[in-house]
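Question thread 4412

I'm putting together a teaching handout and wanted feedback from people who do this every day. The idea is simple: show students a protein as raw sequence, then show them the structure tokens that encode its fold, then repeat with a second protein so they can compare. Below is the first pair exactly as I plan to print it.
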Amino acid sequence: MASARMGSIVGEAVGVDEVSEYVRGRPAAALRPYAAFYSGYRDSGGDLAVHRGLPSPYLTLIFTLDDPLVMADPARAPRSYRSLLGGLDPTPAFIAYGGRQSGVQVSLHPLGARVLFGCPAGELAGLELDAADVLGPLAGEVRERMLHADTWSQRFAVLDRALLSRVDDRREVEPRVRYAWGRLLRSGGNVSVAGLADELGWSARHLSGRFATELGLSPKTAARVVRFDRARRALAGAPHSAAAVAAAHGYYDQSHFVRDFREFAGCSPTTWLAEEFRIVQVMGPLEAADSPA
């Protein structure tokens, strides 16, 4: 079995007790239609804060290595997880940062949910779950094995073995739904629902129904999330070019981009960069979502 290939490492040490590290890796080749990439992270010594997890075209699977992950949505009581699975959601997730965090995050293609979890991503949309609710005892076993691993590549290899054991390709998604999702990704979210329905020979209503079942989002909302995700990643790489980012990603103008940003992030681009600057700098610009291999 091929192990995950390592990505770039970004690290900084500001003092004896402050370190930030971020490592990217690709899953084994057989997993790439279902899992986009792995992210290993370790951060300590920063100020106490609440981090925004922004909407993206990926399901999120996280295994913590040190302190638990604390979700801190202001409208709900705090929830604590050692491992977490989150579905697609057009609203931000609020994560409490207590001065130390480390773990491994898996960014999963939503149409891989049937193959890996035995259910459509639509059943997970808008939810945050203890990963054990879906993976059973495997969730705890994965975390335990990663805790005993010495390197990020070893931790990624643990994920390779665990996820490969879950693959059941008899549960593949209907080809036209897969085509529609891939078309949205390739266009960067800049394709009309009516045009997409025509390409498939479906009505817009039927397309919306199939999307809701498989992803939990309407095609229009899914397209907007894809476009927003690409734009905000570009903004992280060029934080003083909001107007240029808006123009390059299909927004009418900068005001249109700012309105979408406020809806999906709960704040303006300027506020997001100011609050998340340290995390953005540690992680660096990330590539936008693309069609599964």
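The second pair follows. I'd like the answer to focus on this one:
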Amino acid sequence: MTDPGRSADHDPGRSRGPDLELRAVRGMGEIRPGDDLPAIVADALAPLAPQDGDIVVVTSKVVSKAEGRIRPAAEREQAITEESVRLVASRAHPGGITRIVEHRTGLVLAAAGVDASNTDDGTILLLPVDSDASARAIAERLRSRFGAAIGVVVSDTLGRAWRVGQTDVAIGAAGVRVLEPVGTDANGRPLLVTAPAIADEIAGAAELVAGKADGVPVVLVRGLGRHVTDLDEPGARRLVRPPGDDMFRLGSDEAYRAGREAGRIDALAEAGAQHAG
């Protein structure tokens, strides 16, 4: 997949963006608990001759499988509860109740990321324990094996507030600049809040190559070497919005109930104060 960019004739004075190549990595086979995933990924990548500046996107499904994050499907609701630290919103529907929760890693997503796709019948997969650490382990192995500065992104599929559909985002990263503040626009005007979520954009692009039904858990991204860093760069956890900056901490129904309860408590307190007076 190559982005030819705009020609100089069409867009004079603008610098041409980099060519971008994304290649599906095949031949890994089914991943089982206890498998040495970094070694398996390295073996599958070897025919593509990884080089400095490459970024490898690994779906969280295979990370979860290798780490044994598998439960019986009958325990789905219990698993969601155990993986959650806060209920953000819930909606009843004919098939049950959908819960949007804050995962213990800070991610806000449906069903705490518990998923029954691309796993054996009768089982579910939980998110990795620490996706940044998982990405780092893979990156360390790849850098050692190929003698090249290679970044790693662990991806998962999330829905978006205000938008229909899902896209892949980065839930783990190592050796990749996940966020890139931009100082000015093309005309030199200051950009005070613009900061492209580079790792999310890479994960979304890789999903176009991997697909949900094609059984491709790894994608090699070439052409973004400027975003590859040392392994001490902050991981994808940096992309989780701090609670103090979150303007939408609750779903609308939950916020309404909380406000009504707060009003009731205030009214009781005021009545008590008037009675005491």
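Top answer:
Good format. For the second protein you could add a caption like this: Strands lie at 21-25, 55-59, 70-72, 84-93, 96-103, 108-110, 123-125, 151-160, 163-174, 218-222. The longest helix spans residues 252-276.
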